[in-house]
Design brief:
The complex is a heterodimer of chains A (177) and B (170). With 177 residues, chain A is of the alpha+beta class. Chain A has 7 helices and 5 strands. In chain A, helix 2 packs antiparallel against helix 3 and helix 2 packs parallel to helix 4. Classes of the chains: A alpha+beta (177), B alpha/beta (170).
């Protein structure tokens, strides 16, 4: 069974309580339709379990297949460096159908982030190393597609994919008390 | 699940079509490490299918001195279309005629379904199986097992220094 090799640290983007009994780590790609479809499921789980949960998102862009996935991940890191990771994360998924660099810059601008700084950050790939580090860690942990979820460090394999996640989290919560 | 060739077995040689007019033999890789990834079929209807994932991990495999070969019973024309669609940068071999013969020689053929198992083999520079793993058909095994196996091998005498695309060095 594939195990998460990179523990959640202060370098991660997280929602919830660091001391929660249940931790979910998602490896996702901003241009992957299955990841976009998983978004409301994750939101539903967060709404239901709130503080009893820690959720972290890491980048796993399949750049050969999804040409905008890597710049989108870099944009999210850029926003994250200014404390706005989650707002841009949601905005990118909401605009997945029309993703490109001008849209990414417009989304950043709508969050009052500097379009010029973002353009420079994308041109110089300032945040690419962080994105690639997420990807490399995901590969070593057995990420086998996107989205990939790890519940308390164990890869969640389910025939229905993310649709099976709420029941699995409920079950883990019961065990964790 | 099939009984695939275990660690320590001699990797059976084979010659298979890699394009409609080109064939490739395992013995051409003598002195180098090879990853054989048997898989059921081209065109799995998901983004992160096994071959696309490996395409993104290719620089990491090559940094470990290993070349990747994908093998299924699909024909060479099918492989060509699939590789082009997914922008694959490694060879797909057609175990097409006689169907599944190479997979059978590795114990990685499913008679009941007429396709290859999802079986992985790391073959060392001496042509011996250094690691093998058979995944449930529906579960993409990922790349962690392959990378662990490659790192567990002793350092090679010479590195082939295959060119890398730094953009995707993960």
């Amino acid at each position: 069974m594939a195990q998460l090799r990179i523990p959640v640290t202060s370098l991660d983007h997280v929602i919830g309580d660091e001391n929660a009994a249940v931790t979910i780590v998602e490896y996702g790609d901003y241009e992957c339709p299955f990841c976009a479809a998983a978004q409301p499921i994750v939101k539903q789980i967060l709404a239901r379990h709130g503080r009893n949960l820690l959720f972290a998102f890491r980048h796993f862009p399949l750049a050969e297949m999804h040409p905008h996935a890597e710049p989108a991940a870099e944009t999210a890191e850029f926003a994250g460096s200014q404390g706005l990771f989650w707002p841009i994360h949601d905005a990118i998924y909401a605009n997945q159908h029309r993703l490109n660099t001008p849209v990414l810059i417009a989304l950043a601008a709508s969050l009052k982030l500097s379009p010029i700084s973002l353009r420079d950050a994308l041109a110089t790939h300032r945040f690419l190393r962080k994105v690639q580090a997420d990807f490399a860690g995901g590969v070593r942990s057995g990420v086998n597609g996107t989205p990939a979820f790890f519940i308390n460090g164990v890869r969640f394999d389910h025939p229905l994919g993310a649709a099976g996640l709420p029941a699995a989290i409920d079950a883990t919560m019961r065990v964790a008390g | 699940m099939a009984n695939i060739l275990p660690k320590g077995a001699k990797a059976p040689d084979f010659t298979l079509h890699v394009t409609p007019d080109q064939a490739l033999s395992l013995r051409e890789f003598a002195g180098r490490r090879v990853i054989l990834a048997f898989y059921p079929a081209d065109w799995s209807p998901v983004c992160g299918d096994q071959m696309s994932l490996y395409n993104h991990v290719l620089p990491e495999f090559r940094r470990n001195g290993a070349e990747l070969l994908g093998i299924s019973v699909d024909g060479a024309w099918c492989h060509q279309a699939f590789a082009r669609d997914r922008k694959l940068h490694f060879a797909l071999l057609a175990d097409f005629e006689p169907k599944g013969a190479v997979a059978k020689s590795y114990g990685a053929y499913r008679d009941q379904d007429g396709v290859c198992e999802r079986a992985l083999f790391v073959i060392d520079e001496h042509g011996m199986v250094a690691w093998s793993y058979c995944s449930p058909l529906a579960v993409n095994p990922g790349a962690d097992g392959i990378l662990d196996a490659l790192e567990a091998l002793p350092p090679m005498e010479k590195n082939d220094g295959t060119a890398q695309n730094p953009r995707h060095v993960a």
